Model the fold of this input.
Amino acid sequence: MRASFLDNPLYLGASQKAVHSHAQGVSDTPLGEILPAPVREWLARIRLLEGVPFAHLVPDSELLPPESIRFFYLDREWTDALVQGALSVGTITTLDREDLQQLHARLRDEIDTEERKIRLVGSDDPGTAPAETISGFLLRSRVVSGWPALHVRGYSAEVGPDDGPVQENDPRRLRLLRLERLAPAVLLCLFDGVPQVVHIEEPHQGVQFGVDLKVGEEGTTGATVPLRDMTTGTRLDRETPPPPPPTSVEVPFRKGAPGVIHVAELAGRIAAQPAVHLGGLVTPSALAMQLLQFPFRQVFGDPAKGTVSGGTEGGYDTYFRAEIGIAVLRVWNQGG
Done:
């Protein structure tokens, strides 16, 4: 009597041999040639959370209130499981699942390389290497909607003064894997590594003029102009040694027109300060120099190593601390 087809040792042996032969062939194939390019790119985008519903990232709006930023690590095991789930769509039999299990490590290495290429446009090939820790942040602020082209830079170590220039090709700069607005006021950023310092800057496209606002008495708002030495262009409050005060002047406003600057009076106040070296006369170009505003930069890092005061010192145990208990999450999952 013939043995059952499914229990036939010849069939089982041939199946196991086919799985082993396929896995051996894949292991000999160079990275980048195992999966078709569209499939490889799609899986890499899944790894970077593209297409993942926002409710799975932030289950409740209270976790990301207005005018806040939240830093996080990406769980590689979670994203690997996400990729495995996508690949399992094509598995039907036990043999298919065993075949996928044999190939998964090699496929993961290929996707590790592909995820670094998603944002590359005409840049050098990053080569093949195991995936690093992915970290990032979610920013919910009016800044995101007001300046859609924000510049974000992450660095693996301190890069000097908080307001100092940093070269674009600085070796400490981390690769950006994803930078995308998920909503008009919500920005998602993913880094290839864990930054020690993050710079978020206004766009650098144009020159702008302005004044520094300050809160006055009884809820009023005033403004000042930080003065510059016209011979060097340096702000007086940053000169060494500093000149005698004042290093800024109050901005006058027209009577009966709140928010409208009295330009002639402002020019006179600037000219009256000897440290600006104007000789008592403010020309249009000199006034433009005094009102020039460079793009603002917000720095996130260790305040003890910064050069601008005002930060709050704290370690990772302060910022990466769970504030929502598991009991609350279970109530949310139950629709409570």
